[in-house]
Amino acid sequence: MKMKWVFFAVLAMFFALAVNLWARAVNTTDIDQVLKKTVLDEEDFKVIDDFLSAAIQELVRTRDFTSIAQQRAVIVSKKSAQGQYAQRFSESAHRHIQAGFQQVQELRPEERRTNVVINLLILIDSLQDLRLADLAMPWLKDQNMVVRYWAVHSLTNAAAVQQLNSGAPSSPTLANTVVDRLKEAVETSSPEILVQIARFAASVNVPQGEGLLLQVADVRIKRYAEWTVKYEFYDVGILKLLESKLPLPSAGSGSIGSATGPGKPAIAQRFAQLYSYAIQRYIKGSERALLNEVQKRHLVSVLVEVEEKCIGRLLNRPQVTIRRAIERESMTALLDEHNRLLGAETTAGELPSQLGFDYGSNRTAPIPLPDPPKKP
Predict the structure, then answer these.
(1) What is the pTM of this model?
(2) Helices 264-287 and 208-226, interaxial angle, to 10°?
(3) 205, 164 Cβ separation under 8 angstroms
(4) Can you point out the beta strands (E) in 75-221?
(5) In terms of C-beta density within 10 A (0-12 exposed, 13-18 middle, 19 or more buried), how is residue 59 classed?
(6) In the structure, what pLDDT confidence band is assigned to residue 167 with cuts at 50, 70 and 90?
């Protein structure tokens, strides 16, 4: 026990020393004094600028990535809501982060360049300042998915959504710009990034957000149809976001009726088709031994959780039939429940009847999942 205590004490001292040494290296003493002031002058503005210049330069130059989190934390800790300070801090951060991205192009090897880009994007994300949004946008289509993830995250995190929904005069314009740029990245993004985009699309208060959410669903539907879908578990989140946009049945009538609005049938159709493809993939993949155990577990999570949390809510009653069919390993029972809920070739399903949608061209059934491509 004593040795364990000594180990943690030494570890704590090491981290404290690392942070303190770095803080002294970028001269936090002066900016700490500025933070205490209520009215700033030009000399104070220079202190803010000098601090950010030194701190961000250190972030770009460092090769010791074990201490970068502490370095970013020190920068973020010097934020303030004080009007003069906040404005100058934001302007200076923008200028020096932009300079950092320009310097990145000269770094070698490629791994070092990528690491610095990621850390600058995480810094933008941590600062939670949409005035830095334009610095992240060029990285939304980067081929490296970690770089792209942090670019997306910095534009779509909870703080960003709150600022975009704040009602400020510039908010709708910026929100639409972010949506448009995200749309360009959807087709080639990884599942982790698609969930982040979908969450943003469902939360931002601009009409274009709904179109972005549908686009994410369409990409996942396409991946299922091609048998190239990965990490099916992420579809739990996407399906829940789609379902959250659908109103509850009217009290006592069991029907949504006119409450759906013009965009709701499209959302309901994507919800049903994506869920159908997940069920069909599980059935066809299990019968033909096309799925590994991880894929099966992911699909079971999608089928069961969406039945319980989404289908049950939309139909206003508990739903456990899909869970029981999976527990019994009865593909026949699972397909029967799929058809009852979502529709078959000759009869509309309960969900389309309740929500007032079809699958296009008056189709009563979801599009069948194609057979997997034959291996060459």
Answers:
(1) 0.88
(2) 20
(3) yes
(4) none
(5) buried
(6) confident
